[in-house]
Amino acid sequence: MQDLSLHILDIVENATEAGATLIEIYISEDKNKDLLQITIKDNGRGMDAAMVKGVKDPFMTTRTTRRVGMGIPLLEQAAKETGGNLQIISEAGKGTEVVATFQESHIDRKPVGDMGATLATLIMGNPDLDFRYYSNLEGEEIEVDTQYIRGELNDSISINDPAVINLIKDLFKKNTKS
Ligand SMILES: Nc1ncnc2c1ncn2[C@@H]1O[C@H](COP(=O)(O)OP(=O)(O)OP(=O)(O)O)[C@@H](O)[C@H]1O
Ligand SMILES: [Mg+2]
């Protein structure tokens, strides 16, 4: 996987499979500490303590189609390659938070990639779920909240209408403030 955005797509897929209705994605950097941090939080079914412990192991999966689960181990590997780490905070019945940290300037740190396209894909593919996105990268803040957008739309336009998706994508284009 070339970009962190593709890892994020994978981790969000775990959240949708866990029955989440709200998925939060936060990406921020701390230039002073040379850190990049990605947090993906969901309100899905969560995991018990044993599962959290085993989840970084690629042979731990509840998939029935394939026996090896790679989403979490691959993101952990991407973080560790930079001297960072991956943390999973989860509680059965409550939800899950996956936090990956990277040494931002590390030569092996993958680029964030196209988060506009990633978020657009997620919203188009999951129009019944809510997403909250916030990033603060290179001094530019971007915020998307589908609950808020839904509130602003009139009932005849759905969240996955191409016009709405294009507006969301536009937020990610440099120098467009709205
Ligand atoms: N957000 C989550 N909520 C509840 N369970 C989760 C969550 N994320 C992961 N899991 C559990 O951990 C297992 C391993 O996840 P991982 O992404 O590493 O592999 P996978 O989803 O099984 O397979 P792959 O990602 O390769 O398609 C999942 O099968 C699931 O049981
Ligand atoms: Mg997965």
Polypeptide structure, described:
With 178 residues, the protein is an alpha+beta fold. It has one domain: 2-Layer Sandwich (Heat Shock Protein 90), CATH 3.30.565.10. It is built from 6 helices and 6 strands. Strands 3-4-2-1-5-6 form a 6-stranded mixed sheet. Strand 3 and strand 4 form a beta hairpin. Helix 1 packs antiparallel against helix 3, helix 1 packs parallel to helix 4 and helix 4 runs antiparallel to helix 6. The mean pLDDT is 92. Adenosine-5'-triphosphate binds next to helix 1 and helix 3.
Name of the CATH class:
Alpha Beta
CATH A-level architecture: 2-Layer Sandwich
Count of discrete structural domains: 1
Shape: globular
What is this structure, in a nutshell?
The chain has helices at residues 4-17, 49-54, 71-80, 115-125, 146-152, 162-171; strands spanning 22-30, 35-42, 85-91, 95-103, 130-137, 140-145. The protein is of the alpha+beta class. Magnesium ion (MG) binds next to helix 1.
Key descriptive features of the protein:
single chain, 178 residues, Heat Shock Protein 90, binds adenosine-5'-triphosphate, binds magnesium ion, nucleotide-binding, protein histidine kinase activity, HATPase_dom, ATP binding
Q: How would the blueprint of this fold be written?
A:
Layout: H1 4-17, E1 22-30, E2 35-42, H2 49-54, H3 71-80, E3 85-91, E4 95-103, H4 115-125, E5 130-137, E6 140-145, H5 146-152, H6 162-171
Parallel strand pairs: 1-5
Antiparallel strand pairs: 1-2, 2-4, 3-4, 5-6
The structure holds adenosine-5'-triphosphate and magnesium ion.
Magnesium ion binds at residues 10, 13-14, 69, 71.
Pfam families: HATPase_c (PF02518)
EC number: 2.7.13.3
Catalytic activity: ATP + protein L-histidine = ADP + protein N-phospho-L-histidine
